[in-house]
Amino acid sequence: MPGNQLHMGESAMEKELIFLVEESPEGGYQATALGHGIFTEADTFESLKTMVHDAVQCHFDDAQRPSVVRLHFVKDEVLTV
User: Fold this and answer.
1) CA 1 to CA 81: how far, in whole Å?
2) Which terminus in the chain has less CB density within 10 A, N or C?
């Protein structure tokens, strides 16, 4: 696909942005971009995806915007043994 071609000096990782997604202690979800100062939160996971999309659109100009955003969901559970 022409839109997914990498330019000279550009790595695949520069075109992907990873968000760490966690359940918020207050309810809902929160997402933090790794390596960038982007944070957002929402009441539902579907709303969070929209908020992440909007935050990425606002944070990057067209030339620097990553082509892929990965949501890495982390859930801690403590088990008693």
Assistant:
1) 51
2) C
CA separation, residue 69 to residues 29, 30, 66, 76, 79 (Å): 16, 15, 7, 22, 32
In a domain, 31, yes or no: yes
The DSSP secondary-structure symbol of 72 reads E
Residue 37: which domain range?
A: 17-74
* pLDDT tens sequence for the chain (81 residues): 444 444 444 454 468 999 999 999 999 999 999 999 999 999 999 999 999 999 999 999 999 999 999 999 998 888 999
Counting the structural domains of the chain, the total is: 1
